[in-house]
Structures are given as C-alpha cells and as structure tokens.
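Supplementary Methods. Inverse-folding protocol.

Structures were first reduced to a discrete structure-token string of length 189. This string, shown here, constituted the complete conditioning input.
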C-alpha cells in the first residue's frame, strides 16, 4: 500500500518534463486510472448516485439484450416457418416432377406404340398398293398380249381367207351369213 501512496504523493520518481517514459508498475497505473475515472464521475455526477447510474446503464443494456433475444427468437421462428414452407413446396415439386416423369415415360411409350402401329399400317397400305399395281400391270400386259395375239391371228386368218377365197366362195359365205341373220330375225320376232 505504501507503493500506492508514493505514486500519488511523490513526484520525485517521475521522469523530468523533457523526457517521456513508461511506468511499468501495473498496480500503480491501474489505481491512478481508476482514481481519475472516479474523480470525473464524482465531479460531474454531483447529486447523481453512481450506483443508480450504473444500475440504469445495466438495466438499459439488459433490456436491449432481451429485446435482441426476442427479435432473434421471432426471426428464428419465421425462418423455421419459411423453411418448413419451402420444404413442403420442394416435396410438392418433387412429387409433381416424379408424376411428370412417369407421365412422360408412359406418353413416350404410347407415342412409340402409336408410331409403330402407324408405320405398320402405312407399310401394309404400301404393300397392298404395290400388289394392286403389280396385278394391274399383269392384267394390262396380259390384255396387250391377247390383243397382239388376236391381231396376229386375225391378220393370219384374213391372209388365209384372202389367199383361199375366190369370188364364188366369197359370195356363198355372204349368202350363208345373210341367211343366218334372217333366221335369227325370225326367231326374235
């Protein structure tokens, strides 16, 4: 304690005004600082109780801390509520995505089946058209061959008739044909 009083009363140990130095005695410097603060508080706080002032400061600090805690709790509650809503929306979106995926796969399979059926029908129609075209071409070719054979046979028969037929045979053939036509007319009447 003697050290403390010496630091207040004795100026002989302090360095001269022309130099600067540090006091390394922690105990004496803290007491000096404390005494200066208390002196300022007493001087400026005349009529104000220091403990009341400190109590008010602590109460205000406590109220601010409690208010901050309440606000934090409210924000935490709101954040938890928003998180739950976001999780619910995420679950809903995931279910919808799964449903779209399942529907998409079934739609793809349905479209593949429709396309396959359509392709088979188109191929069947093309096959039928091809067969009809082949039959038509065969019939046309057969008719052309028949027509040529008939023309050749007719030309051959005319050539044979012209070479074998004389005037008298020609007249008899005409008379016979006229007779046949006449008998046919009588039958129809």
């Amino acid at each position: 304690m003697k050290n403390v009083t010496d630091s207040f009363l004795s100026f002989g140990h302090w360095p001269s005004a022309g130099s600067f130095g540090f006091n390394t005695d922690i105990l004496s410097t803290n007491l000096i600082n404390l005494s200066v603060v208390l002196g300022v508080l007493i001087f400026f706080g005349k009529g104000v109780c220091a403990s009341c002032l400190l109590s008010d400061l602590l109460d205000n600090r406590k109220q601010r801390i409690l208010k901050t805690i309440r606000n934090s709790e409210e924000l935490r509650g709101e954040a938890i509520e928003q998180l739950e809503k976001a999780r619910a929306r995420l679950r809903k979106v995931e279910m919808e995505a799964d449903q779209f995926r399942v529907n998409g796969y079934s739609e793809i399979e349905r479209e593949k089946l429709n396309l396959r059926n359509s392709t088979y029908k188109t191929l069947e129609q093309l096959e039928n058209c091809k067969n009809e075209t082949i039959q038509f071409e065969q019939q046309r070719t057969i008719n052309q061959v028949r027509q040529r054979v008939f023309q050749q046979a007719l030309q051959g028969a005319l050539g044979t008739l012209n070479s074998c037929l004389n005037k008298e045979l020609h007249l008899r053939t005409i008379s016979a044909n006229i007779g046949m036509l006449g008998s046919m007319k009588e039958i129809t009447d």
